[in-house]
Protein backbone atom coordinates (compact mmCIF):
# COMPACT_ATOMS: atom_id res chain seq x y z
CA UNK A 1 0.00 0.00 0.00
CA UNK A 2 1.37 3.41 -1.00
CA UNK A 3 1.86 5.82 1.91
CA UNK A 4 0.37 9.29 1.69
CA UNK A 5 2.49 12.30 0.80
CA UNK A 6 2.78 15.17 3.25
CA UNK A 7 1.85 18.33 1.33
CA UNK A 8 2.02 22.09 1.81
CA UNK A 9 -0.24 24.24 -0.36
CA UNK A 10 1.16 27.70 -1.10
CA UNK A 11 -1.37 30.21 -2.42
CA UNK A 12 -0.25 33.42 -4.11
CA UNK A 13 -3.28 35.33 -2.81
CA UNK A 14 -3.51 38.08 -5.42
CA UNK A 15 -3.18 35.56 -8.23
CA UNK A 16 -5.69 33.14 -6.70
CA UNK A 17 -8.33 35.82 -6.17
CA UNK A 18 -7.88 37.19 -9.70
CA UNK A 19 -8.19 33.75 -11.29
CA UNK A 20 -11.14 32.64 -9.16
CA UNK A 21 -12.88 35.89 -10.06
CA UNK A 22 -12.29 35.17 -13.75
CA UNK A 23 -13.44 31.56 -13.41
CA UNK A 24 -16.34 32.03 -11.00
CA UNK A 25 -17.37 35.63 -11.70
CA UNK A 26 -17.23 36.69 -8.03
CA UNK A 27 -15.18 39.79 -7.34
CA UNK A 28 -15.02 39.41 -3.57
CA UNK A 29 -14.38 35.86 -2.41
CA UNK A 30 -15.01 34.43 1.02
CA UNK A 31 -12.41 32.72 3.18
CA UNK A 32 -14.43 29.51 2.85
CA UNK A 33 -14.19 29.60 -0.96
CA UNK A 34 -10.43 30.09 -0.85
CA UNK A 35 -9.98 27.25 1.64
CA UNK A 36 -12.24 24.98 -0.42
CA UNK A 37 -10.10 25.73 -3.47
CA UNK A 38 -6.95 24.86 -1.52
CA UNK A 39 -8.54 21.55 -0.48
CA UNK A 40 -9.47 20.86 -4.11
CA UNK A 41 -5.78 21.08 -5.03
CA UNK A 42 -5.09 17.88 -3.05
CA UNK A 43 -5.26 14.35 -4.42
CA UNK A 44 -6.29 11.18 -2.57
CA UNK A 45 -2.70 10.18 -1.80
CA UNK A 46 -1.88 13.57 -0.25
CA UNK A 47 -2.17 14.62 3.39
CA UNK A 48 -2.29 18.33 4.17
CA UNK A 49 0.47 19.69 6.39
CA UNK A 50 -0.49 23.35 6.11
CA UNK A 51 -1.94 25.98 3.77
CA UNK A 52 0.20 29.08 3.33
CA UNK A 53 -1.65 32.17 2.12
CA UNK A 54 0.31 35.19 0.90
CA UNK A 55 -1.30 38.59 0.44
CA UNK A 56 -1.06 42.25 1.39
CA UNK A 57 -3.43 43.99 3.80
CA UNK A 58 -5.56 46.54 1.94
CA UNK A 59 -4.35 50.10 1.52
CA UNK A 60 -5.51 52.27 4.41
CA UNK A 61 -4.12 55.67 3.45
CA UNK A 62 -5.59 58.77 1.79
CA UNK A 63 -5.21 59.48 -1.94
CA UNK A 64 -6.18 62.65 -3.78
CA UNK A 65 -7.51 62.22 -7.31
CA UNK A 66 -5.27 64.06 -9.82
CA UNK A 67 -8.20 65.47 -11.80
CA UNK A 68 -10.97 66.07 -9.28
CA UNK A 69 -8.79 66.98 -6.32
CA UNK A 70 -11.06 64.90 -4.10
CA UNK A 71 -9.28 63.06 -1.28
CA UNK A 72 -10.46 59.55 -0.44
CA UNK A 73 -9.73 57.76 2.83
CA UNK A 74 -9.39 54.11 1.85
CA UNK A 75 -9.63 52.90 5.46
CA UNK A 76 -13.37 53.61 5.52
CA UNK A 77 -14.24 51.95 2.20
CA UNK A 78 -16.28 48.77 1.81
CA UNK A 79 -13.36 47.08 0.00
CA UNK A 80 -11.06 47.80 2.94
CA UNK A 81 -13.52 46.30 5.42
CA UNK A 82 -14.18 43.22 3.29
CA UNK A 83 -10.52 42.47 2.60
CA UNK A 84 -9.52 43.05 6.21
CA UNK A 85 -12.24 40.64 7.36
CA UNK A 86 -11.17 38.08 4.74
CA UNK A 87 -7.52 38.11 5.80
CA UNK A 88 -8.47 38.01 9.48
CA UNK A 89 -10.65 34.95 8.93
CA UNK A 90 -7.98 33.17 6.90
CA UNK A 91 -5.26 33.91 9.45
CA UNK A 92 -7.36 32.28 12.19
CA UNK A 93 -8.44 29.24 10.17
CA UNK A 94 -7.16 25.77 11.08
CA UNK A 95 -3.92 24.67 9.41
CA UNK A 96 -3.44 28.05 7.70
CA UNK A 97 -0.43 30.34 7.95
CA UNK A 98 -0.96 33.87 6.67
CA UNK A 99 2.14 35.62 5.31
CA UNK A 100 1.68 39.36 5.00
CA UNK A 101 3.28 41.55 2.37
CA UNK A 102 3.18 45.32 2.03
CA UNK A 103 0.94 47.23 -0.36
CA UNK A 104 2.52 50.47 -1.55
CA UNK A 105 1.18 53.13 -3.89
CA UNK A 106 2.93 54.94 -6.71
CA UNK A 107 0.18 57.52 -7.18
CA UNK A 108 -2.21 57.19 -10.09
CA UNK A 109 -2.17 55.55 -13.51
CA UNK A 110 -4.28 55.53 -16.64
CA UNK A 111 -6.43 52.41 -16.76
CA UNK A 112 -5.44 49.87 -19.41
CA UNK A 113 -8.95 49.94 -20.90
CA UNK A 114 -8.83 53.72 -21.13
CA UNK A 115 -5.43 53.58 -22.83
CA UNK A 116 -6.88 51.36 -25.55
CA UNK A 117 -9.90 53.61 -25.97
CA UNK A 118 -7.79 56.77 -26.23
CA UNK A 119 -5.51 55.21 -28.84
CA UNK A 120 -8.49 54.08 -30.92
CA UNK A 121 -10.54 57.26 -30.49
CA UNK A 122 -8.66 60.28 -29.08
CA UNK A 123 -10.65 62.29 -26.52
CA UNK A 124 -10.13 64.29 -23.36
CA UNK A 125 -9.27 62.25 -20.28
CA UNK A 126 -11.98 61.74 -17.69
CA UNK A 127 -11.66 61.28 -13.95
CA UNK A 128 -12.88 57.69 -14.37
CA UNK A 129 -9.93 56.93 -16.65
CA UNK A 130 -7.55 56.89 -13.68
CA UNK A 131 -6.99 54.37 -10.89
CA UNK A 132 -4.56 54.11 -7.97
CA UNK A 133 -1.27 52.44 -8.86
CA UNK A 134 -0.77 49.85 -6.13
CA UNK A 135 2.17 47.46 -5.93
CA UNK A 136 2.75 44.40 -3.76
CA UNK A 137 6.05 44.06 -1.97
CA UNK A 138 7.65 41.16 -0.05
CA UNK A 139 5.03 38.61 -1.11
CA UNK A 140 7.21 36.87 -3.71
CA UNK A 141 10.17 36.91 -1.33
CA UNK A 142 8.15 35.23 1.43
CA UNK A 143 6.85 32.54 -0.92
CA UNK A 144 10.39 31.78 -2.08
CA UNK A 145 11.68 31.64 1.50
CA UNK A 146 8.93 29.25 2.58
CA UNK A 147 9.55 26.96 -0.39
CA UNK A 148 13.24 26.84 0.50
CA UNK A 149 12.55 26.31 4.23
CA UNK A 150 10.01 23.53 3.69
CA UNK A 151 12.39 21.76 1.33
CA UNK A 152 15.65 22.25 3.25
CA UNK A 153 14.12 20.99 6.51
CA UNK A 154 12.41 18.05 4.82
CA UNK A 155 9.10 19.08 6.39
CA UNK A 156 6.94 17.92 3.47
CA UNK A 157 7.24 15.49 0.58
CA UNK A 158 5.46 17.71 -1.91
CA UNK A 159 4.80 21.43 -2.39
CA UNK A 160 1.74 22.58 -4.32
CA UNK A 161 2.46 26.06 -5.63
CA UNK A 162 -0.55 27.98 -6.95
CA UNK A 163 0.85 30.65 -9.25
CA UNK A 164 1.99 31.38 -12.80
CA UNK A 165 4.89 33.66 -11.83
CA UNK A 166 8.32 32.76 -13.21
CA UNK A 167 9.99 34.55 -10.28
CA UNK A 168 9.57 31.31 -8.32
CA UNK A 169 11.67 29.18 -10.66
CA UNK A 170 14.85 29.43 -8.49
CA UNK A 171 12.89 28.32 -5.40
CA UNK A 172 11.32 25.46 -7.36
CA UNK A 173 14.74 24.30 -8.56
CA UNK A 174 16.08 24.38 -5.00
CA UNK A 175 13.15 22.35 -3.65
CA UNK A 176 13.60 19.66 -6.27
CA UNK A 177 17.34 19.44 -5.58
CA UNK A 178 16.41 18.83 -1.93
CA UNK A 179 14.22 15.90 -2.98
CA UNK A 180 10.84 17.62 -2.62
CA UNK A 181 8.33 17.30 -5.44
CA UNK A 182 6.88 20.53 -6.81
CA UNK A 183 3.34 20.61 -8.20
CA UNK A 184 2.31 23.72 -10.09
CA UNK A 185 -1.33 24.83 -10.26
CA UNK A 186 -1.62 27.64 -12.86
CA UNK A 187 -5.43 27.82 -12.65
CA UNK A 188 -6.07 27.61 -16.37
CA UNK A 189 -3.92 30.55 -17.43
CA UNK A 190 -3.45 29.20 -20.93
CA UNK A 191 0.09 29.04 -22.29
CA UNK A 192 2.33 28.33 -19.31
CA UNK A 193 5.90 29.60 -19.31
CA UNK A 194 8.34 26.87 -20.39
CA UNK A 195 10.65 27.53 -17.44
CA UNK A 196 7.82 26.88 -14.99
CA UNK A 197 6.92 23.63 -16.75
CA UNK A 198 10.57 22.54 -16.86
CA UNK A 199 11.05 22.91 -13.11
CA UNK A 200 7.75 21.43 -11.93
CA UNK A 201 7.25 17.72 -11.33
CA UNK A 202 3.60 18.08 -12.27
CA UNK A 203 1.32 20.74 -13.73
CA UNK A 204 -2.03 20.06 -12.12
CA UNK A 205 -5.46 21.17 -13.35
CA UNK A 206 -7.90 21.76 -10.49
CA UNK A 207 -11.63 21.52 -11.17
CA UNK A 208 -13.23 24.04 -8.84
What does this 3D model show about the protein?
With 208 residues, the chain is α/β, with parallel strands linked by helices. The protein is built from 7 helices and 10 strands. It has helices at residues 13-24, 31-40, 78-91, 112-120, 139-152, 169-177, 194-198, and strands at residues 5-12, 46-55, 62-64, 71-73, 96-100, 102-110, 130-137, 158-162, 181-185, 202-203. The protein starts with a strand and ends in a 5-residue tail after the last strand. The mean pLDDT is 93.
Shape by Cα distribution: elongated
CATH architecture: 3-Layer(aba) Sandwich
Oligomer: single chain
**What share of the residues lie within helices?**
25-40%
Q: In total, how many beta strands? A: 10
User: Radius of gyration over alpha carbons?
Assistant: 19 Å
CATH class: Alpha Beta
- The secondary structure category is alpha/beta
Please give the largest β-sheet. Answer: 6 strands, parallel
- Tell me the strand order in the biggest sheet: 5-2-1-8-9-10
Here the CATH topology equals Rossmann fold
Query: How many domains, in number, for the residues?
Result: 1
Q: In sequence order, what are the helices and strands, one letter per element?
A: EHHEEEHEEHEHEHEHE
Helix tally equals 7
Mean pLDDT across residues: 93
- Low-confidence stretches at least 5 residues in length (pLDDT < 50)? none
Strand content: 25-35%
Distance, first to last CA: 29 Å
CATH superfamily (homologous) name: 5'-nuclease
